[in-house]
Specification:
- The protein is α/β, with parallel strands linked by helices.
- It has four domains: 113 residues, Arc Repressor Mutant, subunit A (Orthogonal Bundle); 154 residues, P-loop containing nucleotide triphosphate hydrolases (Rossmann fold, 3-Layer(aba) Sandwich); 90 residues; 124 residues, Winged helix-like DNA-binding domain superfamily/Winged helix DNA-binding domain (Arc Repressor Mutant, subunit A), CATH 1.10.10.
- It is built from 23 helices and 16 strands.
- The strands form four sheets. The chain has a five-stranded antiparallel beta sheet. The protein has a five-stranded parallel beta sheet with strand order 10-11-12-9-13, sandwiched between helices.
- Strand 1 and strand 2 form a beta hairpin.
- The protein is globular, with a radius of gyration of 26 Å.
């Protein structure tokens, strides 16, 4: 949120849940009634609420509030406790101020700035779950936005599915903006990333809608409060609290008639009424194709790259000399929008060729970064950390061990390399299924048999985990033994197959034979 000037502060109010904080008047109200809160506590609340989502160090708060005297940290804790008591923080799932261990405090409620305090209560409630800022331009997402709108209209309950950085939040926000008129402005966006306690999911939704709970069963009370309203509720980043979201979403779907739900997640909720819509990566130029600027700019991945570079450097024009490097970059990044945007941010400093050269290093690839308010998207490594931390123990083991495969591999191959001698195969099968469900594996059917693949960025991350667990040598040997056995087994493949199909069967193993783990 942009910092306001002193003159702006005189007229500015902040609203969160049923509360309104007047910065100019230095007053906290609930439903129009002034709440008793001391001056120091108000200073702390204003400082935190004016920077929602940020972690403010305790010493910074002390320096701001007690600039004229020296106090102990205990004084800060006393006033934060008073604020929490006034807000009913933690009651019935409502949560506003989080204590971030060893770092400081963060205001985690949804804050809506109210300029001048002239809006009606209805107008204000419609702003509670403000949609994220509109991106400069969306590339090649019109069809999926239209598909999601139609599914919402027909079934009321849709989950956008895909790996981190694929653009789920951007698409959900675009759907919300496109549907705003249909819902009379009753569109609410709730970012669940900062929510660590699943019990607070219903409270986060209620706070966004400007509601306060009075009972100890927040889910049922929320259903009662919205049962007669026509709403679109967008729940963003559900995967880390997925069971709580699934329960609440199913209740809202079953027990209301006009509440529509749009969720973004790396895996499906798997409850009644849900219709999943998998978000695909942007199409990029295939290897071996013509590589002129005119040709590669026909592909959405290259268009996004060029747009983002131009936004930073208005003089940028993709040349025929640079076109093959950009095409290679987009292939290496698998058309993943976040990865392409992060790479585009390096071009101003390194140039196109320098950026591509940097991406040849696995470690540098995962460090690609820019400043963003979304912590899980600050680097490609952070995006994958978010997914990895949600895996079961066996899924983590299989995930890092299949990193040795380049391109597509079969379930049998995964069992041969990821499984330990003497162990059963059912755990490997379940783990592969889990990795696919959590959007960490791509799949395709080849002659009726499923084949799997890790994205290049995901594979680079998994290789790092393999090294971290000191398994690289062991699994490399196991992988080499498995690959060495394949030509012999493939030699007896049906000779009646056409020559082209026999070549396809053999060529799928060439990349594994040639590959060495990226450094």
């Amino acid at each position: 949120m942009p910092r306001a000037t002193a003159d702006d502060d005189v007229r500015r109010n902040l609203q969160f849940g049923p509360f309104e904080l007047s910065i100019g008047e230095r007053v906290l109200r609930r439903d129009g009634h002034v709440l008793p809160l001391g001056g120091r506590a108000l200073d702390i609340l204003i400082y935190l609420a004016d920077r929602p989502g940020e972690v403010i160090a305790k010493q910074e708060l002390i320096d701001h509030v007690w600039s004229d005297v020296t106090v102990e940290e205990g004084s800060l804790r006393v006033h934060v406790a008073a604020i929490r008591k006034a807000l009913g923080d933690g009651q019935f799932g409502n949560r506003y101020i989080a204590n971030v261990k060893a770092r400081g405090y963060s205001f985690v409620g949804t804050v809506v700035p109210l300029a001048g305090g002239t809006e009606s209560r209805n107008d204000r409630s419609r702003q509670q779950g403000r949609l994220p800022p509109r991106p400069p331009m969306m590339i090649d997402r019109e069809s999926v936005i239209s598909e999601v709108k139609n599914k919402l209209r027909d079934g009321r309950f849709v989950t956008l599915l895909g790996p981190g950085g694929i653009g789920k939040t951007t698409i959900a926000s675009a759907v919300g903006r496109a549907a705003a008129e249909e819902f009379g402005g009753e569109v609410y966006f709730i970012d669940l990333e900062g929510l660590t306690d699943p019990r607070h999911v219903a409270g986060a939704v209620a706070a966004s809608l400007g509601l306060a709970f009075k009972s100890k069963d927040p889910s049922l009370e929320l259903v009662d409060l919205v049962a007669s309203r026509k709403l679109l509720i967008i729940l963003d980043s559900c995967e880390h609290v997925i069971e709580a979201v699934a329960l609440l979403a199913e209740q809202l779907y079953q027990e209301t008639a006009q509440v529509h739900l749009l969720n973004t997640s790396r895996e499906c909720l798997k409850v009644e009424g849900e219709r999943c819509c998998r978000v695909r990566a942007l199409e990029y130029p295939p290897g071996g194709s013509a590589q002129t600027a005119k040709v590669v700019l026909q592909y959405p991945a290259v268009q996004l790259f060029a747009q983002r570079v131009s936004a930073r450097d208005g003089t940028f024009v993709l040349t025929n000399e640079e076109a093959p490097f950009v095409a290679e970059m987009c292939r290496k990044l698998d058309g993943l929008p976040l990865a392409i945007e992060l790479a585009a941010g390096q071009v101003a400093a390194l140039g196109v060729k320098g950026t591509v050269a940097r991406l040849l290093s696995r470690l540098e690839l995962l460090k690609l970064s820019h400043r963003t308010t979304v912590r899980r998207h600050r680097t490609l490594g952070a995006t994958l950390d978010w997914s990895y931390d949600l895996l079961s123990d066996i899924e983590r083991i299989v995930f890092r061990r299949i990193a040795l495969f380049v391109g597509h591999f079969t379930l049998e191959a995964a069992q041969g390399v990821a499984g330990d001698p003497g162990s059963g195969t059912s755990d490997i099968v379940d783990a592969i299924a889990g990795l696919f469900e959590k959007s960490l594996l791509e799949t395709r059917l080849d002659q009726g048999q499923p084949q799997y693949r890790l994205l290049h960025t995901t594979r680079a991350y998994a290789l790092g985990k393999l090294e971290e667990h000191a398994e690289l040598d062991l699994i490399s040997l196991r992988h080499a033994q498995y690959v060495a056995e394949q030509p012999e087994s493939l030699r007896i493949a049906p000779l009646a197959l056409p020559k082209a199909e026999r070549f396809t069967i053999h060529s799928g193993h060439l990349s594994n034979v040639r590959d060495e783990p990226a450094q």
